[in-house]
């Protein structure tokens, strides 16, 4: 996989070895950031279930001010750190890698009053984890007022129109992959 645009355009993002994860395809990643446009610049971005860090690195490349990468697999965390290191980003305060289970990470952000403009969720398919994560995030006050929660999920793993305080703003299909964009209800 490669970074699609921005400061690190065309740089390689390596997948973790010995871990069965789905990397977000370049066309899907490009669609995410085309939809978000320039609003990523200066934002706080959370890559939850980060895997390789592919999407969070794309956010950094496109000008996100701060990115957190969260994964509970030590091989994924090591891979994320390696990918950040290859870009000269490892150790910088503006990007942090957390070895946490997703819900514990959300608790950490709530406890430390860390809020986000964008949260990207790409959990394992078929387990209703996306829905559970959406509900948990909506109750934990880690989102800025106009924040988006983006969920990458399998087309047969339908998400509801509403999850807690979040409502579906738009959804786009790319083959078997769907991107669902949620916003706080107004």
Report on the architecture of this protein.
The protein has 186 residues and is an alpha/beta fold. The protein has one domain: Vaccinia Virus protein VP39 (Rossmann fold). Helix content is 28%, strand content 28%. It has 5 helices and 8 strands, in the order H-E-H-E-H-E-H-E-H-E-E-E-E. It has an 8-stranded mixed beta sheet.
- Per DSSP, the total helix count is 5
Major sheet description: 8 strands, mixed
Give the name of the CATH superfamily. Vaccinia Virus protein VP39
Shape: globular
Number of domains: 1
Radius of gyration: 15 Å
Instruction: List the helices and strands in order.
Output: HEHEHEHEHEEEE
Please give the number of β-strands.
Answer: 8
CATH topology: Rossmann fold
Question: Descriptors for this entry?
Answer:
alpha/beta; 28% helix; eight-stranded mixed beta sheet; Rossmann fold; 186 residues; 5 helices
Would you spell out the secondary-structure blueprint of this structure?
Layout: H1 26-36, E1 44-48, H2 54-61, E2 66-71, H3 74-86, E3 95-99, H4 102-111, E4 116-121, H5 129-139, E5 143-154, E6 162-163, E7 166-174, E8 177-184
Parallel strand pairs: 1-2, 1-4, 2-3, 4-5
Antiparallel strand pairs: 5-8, 6-7, 7-8
How would you concisely characterize the structure shown here?
By secondary structure, the protein is α/β, with parallel strands linked by helices.
